[in-house]
Every structure is written in C-alpha cells, then in structure tokens.
C-alpha cells in the first residue's frame, strides 16, 4: 500500500509498531529460556582462582567485579558472603549470593573455566600471561525447597574474620564454618557483623550445595544446572578474554564474540549468556573444542 500510495505518517507509525513488536518478541523469546525448575530462583556464585599465583588471584577479582556489575545492571541484590584474599593482590576465592528474578536462569550460562590473556602488570619483563579462574553457579535453596539438615552431622566452627572489615568483625569470633561430615562439604561465611547472621547465610549456602548434590543423584543430566566439575586450566575453558595482542572476548561454546572487552569486564554479559542459553535450549553441541582455541 505504501509503495502504491506513499504516506510518511503511516510509514512512521508502522516503523514504531514494528520496533515495539520486535522488542516484545525478544523479551518473550528470552523468557522462554528460563523454563527450568530452578531458573527463577536466586543464585549462589563461587569464583576460584586457578594456578598462576598473583596473576590468577587478580583475574578472579576481576571476574568478581564483572559479575557484581552485571547484577547491578539488572538491579539484583548481591552479598559477598565469603572471600579469601590473595597473597599479594586479588582473591583466591569468593562466594556471592545474587537475588533477583531469573538470577540462576541467567547465571547457569556462566559455569565453567574463564581464561584471561594479557600483559601481566605483575611481570617485570612485561610478558604475555595466560591464567584461569573457575566459576560455579547453583540455585539458592529457599523455604520452597525441602532440604532437611541433620545438625548432628554438621560441625560448626567459629573464628575471627581474616578479611577486611570493621573493628567488631576482626576482633570477635563471628565468622562461621559449617562442615557437612557425610559429604565433606565446607561452607564459610565471615562478612557479616554477627555470628548469627553468618550462620544463617552459611546455612543457606550449605542447603544450596546439598540441593545440588541431591539433584545430581536423581539424574545424571544435572549438568544443565552446574556442569561436571572441571579444573581451572587448559582444555576446559568456556570463554577467552584476550587483552593482548588484540582485544577480543569469545565464548567457545557458542562462537559469540566481541572486541569491546571493556564493556564485557564492566558487566555487559547478557548477549553471551543469551547465546549459551539458546544453545542449551536447542540441544546444540559446543561450536568449538577448547583445545583448538589458540587466542
């Protein structure tokens, strides 16, 4: 009709309606990716530095900042409930609770080994370094999930916080370590002011880990929730972040990549997550073998 009878007002209206429909379609299409049993729940995210000393602990700290900024973009609530500082810089490990709609649904796309390639600021000879960190995600167990704890099987230890904090945090034994004796699972929480708060948070994380263990027993296909345990090293990476000799972040499972490394490290992760969630939803195999990545 517009070709036969041009009408600028009608054309503008159709373009607006088309854009609105496209946005609605993209939103509904994305929501379909969160159809798993636990996708709508909050998430527990754990980051662990791989081998590599200071370079690895600094990379783990960069990843922690990246996920905190991503959560901030989504207006999710975050709480770093435990962290272990590196000897010179960064962190050896950190555990974060992330609360928001579909938090676990999004973050299950991030489980795996993340690889960084850059000129290390800690190398006096300015050589290019490759380092790794492991990201693990699990759904947070809440009151809707029936996970009963037998406290006769749990050892509770209290100790002084070793991290940064106020006078109260560092001078009282408010940090809590829960050890589940039958499974060997250990959960530590030391970032809250009181032992009661730390115990409550540690209990939530322990329930989440036991939930994950129970699900693994029920079906071997639970790799959809966390994936099999891997070490943070060569051959296991899911994504490479290359800062030298060129700028590139590439997901090795989907092939999605961008040269805007600064935005990604600042929390712009949605397109990477969506690409992986779509791959999982359609049952597609990974697009590349990690061993073939030479970036």
Give an account of the 3D structure:
By secondary structure, this protein is of the alpha+beta class. The strands form two sheets. Strands 2-3-1-5-4-9-10-11 form an eight-stranded mixed beta sheet, with helices on both faces. A three-stranded antiparallel beta sheet has the order 6-7-8, covered by helices on one side. The protein contains seven helices and eleven strands. The chain starts with 7 loop residues before the first helix and ends in a 13-residue tail after the last helix. The radius of gyration is 22 Å and the shape is globular. The chain folds into two domains: 43-144 and 222-292, Alpha-Beta Plaits (2-Layer Sandwich), CATH 3.30.70.1660; 151-220, 2-Layer Sandwich (Double Stranded RNA Binding Domain). Strand 9 (237-242) and strand 10 form a beta hairpin. The longest helix has 24 residues, at 8-31.
Indicate the topology.
Elements: H1 8-31, E1 43-49, H2 54-73, E2 77-85, E3 91-99, H3 103-107, E4 112-119, E5 128-139, E6 154-159, H4 167-171, E7 175-180, E8 185-189, H5 195-218, E9 237-242, E10 248-251, E11 257-258, H6 261-265, H7 270-282
Parallel strand pairs: 4-9
Antiparallel strand pairs: 1-3, 1-5, 2-3, 4-5, 6-7, 7-8, 9-10, 10-11
């Amino acid at each position: 009709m517009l070709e036969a009878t041009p009408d600028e007002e009608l054309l503008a209206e159709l373009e607006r309606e088309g854009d609105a429909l496209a946005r609605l379609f993209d939103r509904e299409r994305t929501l379909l990716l969160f159809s798993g049993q636990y996708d709508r729940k909050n998430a527990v995210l754990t980051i662990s530095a791989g081998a590599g000393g200071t370079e690895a602990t600094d990379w783990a700290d960069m990843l922690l900042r990246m996920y905190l900024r991503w959560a901030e973009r989504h207006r999710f609530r975050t709480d770093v409930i435990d962290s272990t500082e590196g000897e010179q810089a960064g962190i050896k490990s950190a555990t974060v609770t992330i609360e928001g709609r579909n938090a676990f649904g999004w973050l299950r796309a991030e489980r795996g080994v993340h690889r960084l390639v850059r000129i290390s600021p800690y190398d006096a000879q300015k050589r290019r370094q490759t380092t790794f960190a492991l990201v693990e995600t699990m759904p947070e167990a809440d009151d809707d999930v029936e996970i009963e704890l037998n406290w006769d099987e749990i050892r509770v230890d209290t100790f002084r916080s070793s991290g940064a904090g106020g006078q109260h945090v560092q001078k009282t034994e408010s940090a809590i370590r829960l050890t589940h004796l039958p499974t060997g699972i250990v959960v530590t929480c030391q970032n809250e002011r009181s032992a009661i708060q730390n115990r409550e948070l540690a209990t939530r994380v322990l329930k989440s880990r036991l939930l994950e263990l129970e699900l693994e027993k029920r079906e071997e296909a639970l790799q959809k929730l966390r994936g099999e345990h891997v070490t943070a090293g060569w051959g296991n990476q899911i994504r490479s972040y290359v800062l030298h000799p060129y700028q590139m972040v590439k997901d090795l499972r989907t092939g999605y990549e961008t040269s805007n490394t600064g935005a990604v490290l600042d929390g712009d992760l949605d397109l990477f997550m969506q690409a992986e969630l779509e791959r999982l939803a359609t049952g597609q195999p990974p697009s590349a073998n990690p061993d073939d990545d030479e970036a």
